[in-house]
Amino acid sequence: MWGLIRFRRARVLSLGCVLALTLLAGCAVPLGPGYLISRETVTVHYQPGAPRLYYSVRADVRNDGNSTLSLLRIRAPRPLAALPPKPPATRAPSTAGPVDLGPRGELKWLSVPLNPPLGPLRPRGSVVIPFGYIVATSGNAVLLEPQNWFPAFLPPTGLFARGELRAPKTELDIFVPRGYAALATGRFRGVRSGPSADQSEYRYELDGQDFLPLLLVGRYSVRDLRSGGSEVAFWTRAPLSKSCAGAWAAHLASRAAFYRSAFGRIAKHRRPIPLIELPPETASWIREASDGFGSVPGGVWFSVAPADLCGEPERFFPAADRALAATWFGWDVKPEPGAQAMLGGGAPRYAAWMAEEAEKGPTGRAREIEAWIQEYDRLGRKAPPLAPSRLDAHASATQWQMAGIQSALCLIALEDRFGRQAVRGALAHLVGTLGGESAGLDELRSALEQLTGQDLYAFFHQWLGRPRIPSAFRGRYASAAGKAAHRGNDMGSSGRLK
To answer: What is the 3-state secondary structure (H, E, C) of the chain?
Structure first.
């Protein structure tokens, strides 16, 4: 198998370091501090109408290094504020102290002291670490993406330090009032009565192959439908009609089958595809999306009215297709800085377009590309365009959307030049090689260069290193009216091109 060239920072080691590493290469004990998380349990308590969502994590930790392990670092989700843990039923050797992050705090990590510390090598015991957070909620539902609620263990600091960031098994126990339902990534293990008569406990189980868990809690009607070898789970406030649910189940199952055949099966366990209604009063910190649809790991959420969803499903299929494709490009292959517009926006749009062409044929290809150019121009009247590779946290949602369209058109330009198999093969190689890891533009360009035998640095710079769609491509697809409108947008008060 041909290799994918990855561009990483290289560290120069002195000759002494090289000799030391050579001598210690066969040593079974890792240098410096280290640890393993053998098991963890996450317990969530949801209270509707209250401005908080309490949960705690209990982790079994084993010292796996040759020095004393006195604390752990945990990445703190952004919108959370940490609280002292509830008193455990039994005496626990470790406690996370209170840390105030504010309503939208951005503390990168929390320090969890181990008391007593774990000694090196022996004894190799396990410890239980209780801690908790609150998150402001409103209304009667909450939807949180993994990075906005699920804490992740970080490696210890120090030379040659290492740590396992995920437990091989994670249990989720979500306690909700009767009449509420809870959804998380992972294998559903059932629902049972909680400790009080007015509570239910939803249980999920994850392993290292699963996505980190989303969290959805609210009053939902839950219905599963199987179609085309896939199962679709409908999470809606009221049941959808049989015909509507059947149409959506068939469509999403068909698209998931296409993405698997085109780009490969993601290295995750097969789960039902969730289609989640997001009520207006839902408390959430979710990714910006357009046309009323967005992505969660393995599925899709929507905020359009159910009457519209069922009345004109074909109108919303393209937006749902892009959201579902983000499972492959955005969740499975995680975009590095500078590649979010391409892998998180352009690749899903291109994948959805490929699926539609496979179903309906390429007869409307030029019209669809022209429609994207016109959409880009309409958005350009709201905000100035930015180079897709140079977007940052200060860019607006409109600018992100424009960069996603420009990135998708870049893939179409590559297809025009080298053929669909080259573009499809490069995207599939990213999924097959870097699934579960991060990737940047260098990885995509390297895969394309391997397949085409061409140096594409100048091409990528022209398309992704600069704002605006290249004029040569626009001239090939834009209508005369579209070209005139574009010239008007690019003219300054003096009548000269900007």
So the answer is: CCCCCCCCCCCCCCHHHHHHHHHHCCCCCCCCCEEEEEEEEEEEEECCCCCCEEEEEEEEEEECCCCCEEEEEEECCCCCEEECCCCCCCCCCECCCCCCCCCCCCCCEEEEEEEEEECCCCCCCCECCCCEEECCCCCCEEEECHHHCCCEEECCCCCCCEECCCCCEEEEEEEEECCCEEEECCEEEEEEECCCCCEEEEEEEEECCCCCCCEEEECCEEEEEEECCEEEEEEECCCCCHHHHHHHHHHHHHHHHHHHHHHCCCCCCCCCEEEEECCCCCEEECCCCCCCEEEECCEEEECCCHHHHHHCHHHHHHHHHHHHHCCCECCCEEECCCCHHHHHHHHHHHHHHHHHHHHHCHHHHHHHHHHHHHHHHHHHCCCCCCCHHHCCCCCCHHHHHHHHHHHHHHHHHHHHHHCHHHHHHHHHHHHHHHCCCEECHHHHHHHHHHHHCCCCHHHHHHHHCCCCCCHHHHHHHCCHHHHHHHHHHHECCCCCEC
